[in-house]
Amino acid sequence: MFGRKNEAPTAQETVDQAAAAAQTSSARTAAGKGVPTPKRRDQVAARQRPLVPTDRKAAKNASREAMREERLKTRAALDTGDERYLPLRDKGPQRRFIRDVVDSRWNLGEFVMIAALVFVVVSFIQNLTVQSIVMLAFWVLILAVILDSFILRAIIRRRLTEKFGSPNSGDVWYGVSRALQLRRFRLPKPQVKRGEKPA
């Protein structure tokens, strides 16, 4: 009275619906390339891996060999400066630039270890005058190294700001600590000569 009830579908509509369903089914089969969908338990079983390797000895040997190859690559990178295999603390263009700045200049900190060795040797000499002179020279060198470190700190900070912007935390100390090492024993090895301008 207030509206018409839903009428039953005609025979033509039923035929059209069946044809559409058959077309959808054929499209799904084509998309799946005719292969039935695998069961869930088969998919889960294919993804599962044992937590413990079946052959522990072979897994241990493979892991040891992989670690050995990684160490060799890191060692070679410390000699050549290859960024891909350097330790994390040495990676990045900023750290490389800092190393070049330090390695391109003479640093008084390089001579601290040599002076300390001389001081130890001279301490066995039973001559108060010689000991006093060597000790005085040693402390003068220490003060000069501290002053040189402050100068180097300012140079690194200024050069980093000019090239990369504000330096990151630890960058300046990274350069100063490198300057306190003998050039021959620095790692990664220097890639610039003394007096050479860093790129």
How would you characterize the overall build of this protein?
The protein is an all-alpha fold. Among the domains are: 57-86; 91-199, no CATH class. The chain has helices at 11-31, 40-47, 56-80, 93-103, 112-122, 128-164, 171-179. Helix 4 (93-103) packs parallel to helix 7 (171-179). The radius of gyration is 37 Å and the shape is elongated. Residues 1-71 are annotated as: Disordered. Residues 17-31 have a biased composition (Low complexity).
Compose a concise summary of this entry:
Residues 1-71 are annotated as: Disordered. The protein is 61% helix and 0% strand. The protein is mainly α.
Indicate the topology:
Elements (H helix, E strand, L loop, with lengths): L10 H21 L8 H8 L8 H25 L12 H11 L8 H11 L5 H37 L6 H9 L20
Pfam families: DUF3043 (PF11241)
Keywords: Membrane, Transmembrane, Transmembrane helix
Protein name: DUF3043 domain-containing protein
How many β-strand runs?
0
Show unreliable segments: 3-8, 27-31
Q: Round the mean pLDDT to the nearest integer and report it.
A: 82
Number of helical segments with 4 or more residues: 7
Class from helix and strand fractions? mainly alpha
> Separation of termini?
92 Å
H/E element sequence? HHHHHHH
Percentage beta strand: under 5%
InterPro entries: DUF3043 (IPR021403)
Region (Disordered): 1-71
Keywords: Membrane, Transmembrane, Transmembrane helix
Organism: Arthrobacter sunyaminii
Please name the defining characteristics of this protein.
single chain, elongated, mainly alpha, 199 residues
